[in-house]
Amino acid sequence: MIELDDRLLVLRRYAREWGADLAGLALDLERSPELVHKHLDLPGVSFLSRTPIPAEYNPHPLVLDGHRFYGVGGLERVTFCEEFAAADVGMLLAAPGPSLSGVFVALLGDERQKEWFFGRLLERPTWTFFALTEPERGSDAGSLRSALRPAPDGETLLLDGAKRFIGNAARADLGVVFARTRPGPLGVVAALVETAQPGFRATPFPTVGLRGNQVSQVTLDGVEVPAGRVLGRHLSPTRRGLAGAVRGFNRLRPGVAALGVGIARGAYEYVLANRRSLTAGERADLDAMGRGIEGVRQLVRRAALAIDHDDPALGYLASAAKARAARLAEEVTLRATGFFGAGARLEHPLLDKFVRDARGVEYMEGTRNIQRLNVFQGLTQGRLPRG
Amino acid sequence: MTTEIGARLRAAAREDGLVAALRLLNEETGGGALAHGPAGHAVAPVAPAAPAGGTATVVRTIELHGDTLVALRDPQGRRARPAWSLGLLWLRLGLSEALLDHCLAYLGERTSGDTPLLLQQMVKGQLAEAVTDHLEIETLLAGTEPDDLGDDTAAWLHERVTRADRTLLRLLGGSGFRADGPGATADVSELLADAYAGRDRTEEVNR
Predict the structure, then answer these.
(1) Radius of gyration from C-alpha coordinates of chain A
(2) Where is the Acyl-CoA oxidase/dehydrogenase middle domain (chain A) (predicted)?
(3) Which of A102, A158, B34, B140 has a CA-to-CA distance to A18 between 20 and 30 Å?
């Protein structure tokens, strides 16, 4: 079992309190995603708007009961992700802040890039976006076609392409875009892009769940990118290319998995709070759901610790956790409706929302099949720890 | 219900979509009144005019690909007739088959490397699972008379349709999550099962 230490127990307690504020807004936010602008002062939203930012770039971290929090550690991240998702994953994904882009900037950025990016985020609540997925090609970074080419002036770069399923792109000021400078795995780069640049267009489209995230399609038509905004220029091509991207995705995935655990827990706790006089059979079913949630939570924490310990098995552990978390979220939310009988989703809008949001976990950061293939690679290449 | 009506509902759902099939279901088996589920819920393509002093309330408005459906609660609403309940299963089977058709087309066009996703072994296996679910549901429904279909069996079959749909939706990645695509139809199909299957457990809920 992997337990939280005193510091993370403090974070969990506060995040749970903050989550309670967010849960009350969940349905309104789903109807009107712009409502997030009115709640930037809520402690939970304020926390998200300032994390993750590494300590050296954040002179004023959040201090809770004497502990400092920057949101950068693996176990720290999955702890608050689960708590917020158990309340409302919509607000977690709607909030301003470094979010996924922050993880990549921290990993691949040079000093100037980090100062610029994190400095912008500390000035005021600022939304960021993270653009990898492309039409027809999905989230396969190796096959992406968005292109970053030198501008005629030779000073800057121009970005062309299209992206799909990009959360917060329509409300963001800046973000990370994956593109290609040349064929092959070394030609994959991540660049910091400002949405105010001509040629950047983001259009939200409707989704079945996770509506607070305002998932968008993005077109990039000659968007100007200063050469200094390509992440990892100070690194060797093998560390900043596709391999660098994969390292970054591995660090994101436990957090996404924690969203699945949180959604499942939210539905489970909804049953506990709203059903009375459970039969012995129902109690047994509910207990089994609780054990299933704890099992996947442990997988997620194990992957999170692999981030904190620079464990080379991180990618495989993170894929195992994410695949199980996506399955857990779908199964527990569907089973939870059974406790309320006919009309469960119509009469219990929060439970209905958990059911729909759970479907979204599947496609974030790679589908279950992609994760299974990665776990298989770890198994056959002897990189997955097996005792 | 004759198997012929079931076949028509299944074909209408597969070819014309959820709203057209639901209208056909109401016309063919509704008996002139709106069908309600065990806890008094109904999902209908258009807002039926509530009679003055009626007990129905609208609990949700559902937009689906340009059509509007309403979900109602009416404690005094007339329970769905057995023929309607059986027809709803044929309808949801047809919708699930349409989703499979969509997956086949989508996965045939998408490639990973140089190989269509459709030809990847895991994808093949999951499509085989979904069509096997369809075969099982179809076989159980074939020849079933309305009065032979118990509530628990119907609920179990609805769950099987939902599981098949979920298997298929996962193969669509993010496109299955768009509200302007087949993933939205699958969600409304689940809401139909929600309204019309299962037991009335209203008294077991904290209020």
Answers:
(1) 20
(2) 130-223
(3) A102
In order, the DSSP letters of A60-107 are S-EEETTEEE-S-SHHHHHHHHHHHHHHHHHHHHHS-SSHHHHHHHHH
Residue range B69-128, pLDDT digits in tens: 999 999 999 999 999 999 999 999 999 999 999 999 999 999 887 789 999 999 999 999
* Token output for A122: 């500390």
Round to whole Å and give the CA distance between A304 and B189. Answer: 37
Q: What ipTM was estimated for this complex?
A: 0.96
- Sort A110 into a burial class: Cβ within 10 Å, 0-12 / 13-18 / 19+: middle
If you ran DSSP here, which 8-state letter would residue A58 be given?
-
Stated as kind and residue range, the H or E segment containing A225 is strand A216-226
Instruction: Give the rounded distance of the alpha carbon of A157 from its chain centre.
Output: 28
Residues of B in contact with A277 (CB under 8 A): 204
Query: Which DSSP helix (H) or strand (E) runs through A174?
Result: strand A174-180
Whether residue A141 is predicted with pLDDT greater than 80 in this model: the reply is no
d(CA A289, CA A345): 19
Q: How many CB atoms lie within 10 A of CB B132?
A: 11
Distances, alpha carbon A110 to alpha carbons A104, A126, B130, in Å: 11, 21, 49
DSSP, collapsed to helix, strand or coil, labels residue A14 as: helix
Rounded Cα distance between A232 and A241, Å, is 9
Provide the shortest C-alpha distance from residue A335 to chain B (in Å).
Answer: 10
Backbone angles phi, psi at B104, to 5 degrees: -60, -45
3-class secondary structure, A282? helix
Condensed to tens digits (0 to 9), the pLDDT of residues A62-115 reads 999 999 999 999 999 999 999 999 999 999 999 999 999 999 999 999 999 999
Q: Hey, are the CB atoms on A360 and B110 less than 8 Å from each other?
A: no
Q: Spell out which chain B residues touch chain A, with contact meaning CB-CB distance below 8 angstroms.
A: 37-41, 59-60, 71, 73, 110, 112-113, 122-123, 126, 162, 166, 169-171, 173-174, 176-180, 183-184, 187, 190-191, 194-202, 204-206
Angle at B160 between CA B24 and CA B102, to 5 degrees: 65
A27 contacts chain B (CB < 8 A):
no
C-alpha to C-alpha distance for A318 and A255, rounded to whole angstroms: 9
Per-residue model confidence as pLDDT tens digits over A258-286: 999 999 999 999 999 999 889 999 999 99
Count helices and strands (H / E) in chain A.
13, 9
Quickly tell me which residue has 């179990």 as its tokens: B156
Closest to A373 (Cα-Cα) out of A326, A320, A328, A331? A320
d(CA B45, CA A12): 45
The gap from C-alpha A299 to its chain's centroid, in whole angstroms, comes to 17
Q: Are A179 and A161 in contact (CB under 8 A)?
A: yes
Helix count and strand count (H, E) for chain B = 6, 5
Please tell me the pTM assigned to this model. Answer: 0.96
Residue A312 neighbours by CB distance under 10 Å: 11
